[in-house]
């Protein structure tokens, strides 16, 4: 497995699941990739990707992007959505988000930067964001993730 493929798989796994220990992440990667991966390789990958172990509210731990990297976008997106969302509508593989005029492009770009695995594409204007969902997913799955940010 090439490094870029491994990094993409790690990104998807860390966003969708909680891993308290590296060996749990290694097992998940091996299961998805169908190949053996050493813990040393994953340790280097985590460092390169700026993933750190943080304490959760429930006392457990999880790997997340460091504060000076990806999580800033998630925090900013959450804050902007809370302040500016007017409605969220779902129709099969489409999710339409209406926001306060003037915030559509910023919020749309942040949604795109989140690289949700369900999203095929994002189309934005001043006050609306249209998310096109991949065939293997549906709009409900993505709407749940967006609502968790609110």
TrEMBL record:
Keywords: Amino-acid biosynthesis, Arginine biosynthesis, Cytoplasm, DNA-binding, Repressor, Transcription, Transcription regulation
Residue ranges occupied by any Arginine repressor DNA-binding domain in the UniProt entry: 1-63
Coiled coil (residue ranges): none
Pfam families associated with the record: Arg_repressor, Arg_repressor_C
Compartments, as annotated in UniProt: Cytoplasm
Top-level taxon of origin: Bacteria
Main location per the UniProt record: cytoplasm
All copies of domain Arginine repressor C-terminal, residue ranges: 82-147
Metabolic or biological pathway: Amino-acid biosynthesis; L-arginine biosynthesis [regulation]
Function field: Regulates arginine biosynthesis genes.
Protein family (similarity comment): Belongs to the ArgR family.
Name of the protein described by the UniProt record: Arginine repressor
Species: Periweissella beninensis
Gene name per UniProt: argR
């Amino acid at each position: 497995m090439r490094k870029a493929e491994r990094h993409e798989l790690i990104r998807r796994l860390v966003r969708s699941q909680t891993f308290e220990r590296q060996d749990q992440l290694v097992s998940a990667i091996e299961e998805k990739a169908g190949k053996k991966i050493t813990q040393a390789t994953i340790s280097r990958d985590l460092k390169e990707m700026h993933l750190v172990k943080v304490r959760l509210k429930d006392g457990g731990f999880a790997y997340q992007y460091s504060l000076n990297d990806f999580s800033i976008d998630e925090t900013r997106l959450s804050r902007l959505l809370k302040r500016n969302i007017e409605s969220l509508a779902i129709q099969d593989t489409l999710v339409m988000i209406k926001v306060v005029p003037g915030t559509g492009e910023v919020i749309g770009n942040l949604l795109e930067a989140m690289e949700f695995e369900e999203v095929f594409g994002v189309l934005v204007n001043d006050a609306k964001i249209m998310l096109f969902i991949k065939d293997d997913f549906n709009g409900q799955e993505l709407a749940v993730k967006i609502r968790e940010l609110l």
